[in-house]
Amino acid sequence: MDKHTITIELTQGAINNGYLKLSRNLDFFPADAVGGPNLSSAGRTLEVDFGRGLTVNSDIAGDKGILRERAAVRSFMSRERATAGSKVRITKLKPYRYAISMDSVEVSSEPEGTARQHVPEVVSGDSRSRRHRADPVRGLGLLFKLVLWGVGAVVAIRMFGGN
After folding, report:
1. Which of 39, 77, 93, 152 is 20 to 30 A removed from 145 (C-alpha atoms)?
2. How far is CA 81 from each of CA 62, 78, 102, rounded to the nearest angstrom?
3. What DSSP state is assigned to residue 51?
4. At residue 106, does pLDDT exceed 70?
């Protein structure tokens, strides 16, 4: 990683409670963006872009070392299907402006030469493209679900004596 990027490993607690633990990386952010324990002592706001049109203004709650705006963090984790051990990349775009994405870089724990299943990646269509894991069912949407439902109905009818 370069000096404009940090990576944070998610814990189950962080996912359950919708926070990104920044306390070990507070020096990555401007000192005046780290506020006190409540809104009355909030720091200077950062513009945080979670991709797909989700951008929020938030400071860092200094007593907890987390972004104060947790609803956006929760939404991001849900959308990205984050799991404990997933890595989140925070990139400094300019002073007081940051982008947050899932880190798609994986380190293999298998010995060299061992075959690994390849997980395809998809690039989103906006001008600030970011990579994420492909989901083979996602995107097929309603048509796929209707076809599956129809096939299931036909099988059930044949099994249980329909014409």
Report:
1. 77
2. 27, 5, 10
3. S
4. no
